[in-house]
Design goal:
This protein is of the alpha+beta class and about 230 residues long. It folds into 2 domains: about 15-110 and about 120-195, Electron Transport, Fmn-binding Protein, Chain A (Pnp Oxidase, Chain A); about 200-230. The protein has 6 helices and 9 strands. It is elongated. The relative contact order is 0.18.
Length: about 230
């Protein structure tokens, strides 16, 4: 019997590659897995605006939203970015270096009225990756490098006047006093790509058809489902 869609199941582990971090599944169900491990890494690269969460020494939760660079180096995965200094989350991450980075993709409501058997619970389709790791903060030289690479990555225009190297040095000097760069060594990655893979063919096709009538996120989910039909 298939468990309810929104019931979390005990994690199971598998390896991305021999040297890469362990990947633990939030749903221990084969139809919510990526087709191959590379898709998980590609998803992280394609969805770099993360929720970064942790706890302080009193176990009070903190979180912030930041863009990150996903680096694959010598068989390990690192996340690099920057944040404001002396915020609640910065102070907490200094106290407790264990963090969770949450990568999210398009998501949408799925009505059970679209199933061939309509007398059951509706659900939500979504894609997410959770990367657990240890954060450490970098010096000002590394901060400047992170800022240059981050701006270059997201400007995606070598002639942009907003690249860090084109900014006024006095402005940069003021800026770097207020922020700090970080690097997270990823130790474990969990993922769920929940896209109605457990539905019968008629229901699956009808879900795609209905989502194509929806908002931009619903249409994105429909497109991904269409690509993954095989």
């Amino acid at each position: 019997m298939v468990p309810a869609d929104n019931l979390f199941i005990s994690f199971s582990l598998f390896h991305l590659l021999a040297k890469l971090p362990t990947f633990a599944l939030m749903y221990n169900l084969p139809y919510y897995k990526a087709d191959d491990e590379r898709q998980v890494m590609d998803f992280m690269h394609e969805n770099p605006f993360i929720i970064l969460a942790g706890c302080d020494l009193e176990n009070k939760p903190v979180a912030t939203q930041v863009p990150v660079l996903v680096e694959e180096k010598e068989g390990e995965v690192y996340l690099q970015g920057h944040m404001m200094k002396q915020t609640d989350h910065h102070k907490a991450f200094v106290q407790n270096a264990n963090v969770l980075a949450i990568f999210t993709g398009p998501h949408t409501y799925v009505s059970a009225s679209w199933y061939s058997n309509q007398k059951q619970g509706s659900t939500w389709n979504y894609l997410t990756v959770h990367a657990k790791g240890v954060i450490h903060f970098l010096d000002e030289e590394a901060l400047l490098d992170v800022l240059k690479r981050t701006t270059a990555r997201f400007e995606n225009n070598v002639n942009s006047p907003s690249l860090v190297e084109h900014l006024d040095p006095a402005y940069i000097e003021r800026l770097i006093k207020a922020i700090v760069a970080f690097e997270i060594r990823v130790k474990e990655v969990d993922h769920v790509f929940k896209l109605s893979q457990n539905r019968d063919e008629e229901s699956y096709e009808n879900i795609i058809s209905e989502l194509q009538k929806g908002d931009s996120e619903a249409k994105q989910v429909a497109e991904i489902m269409q690509q993954r039909k095989s």
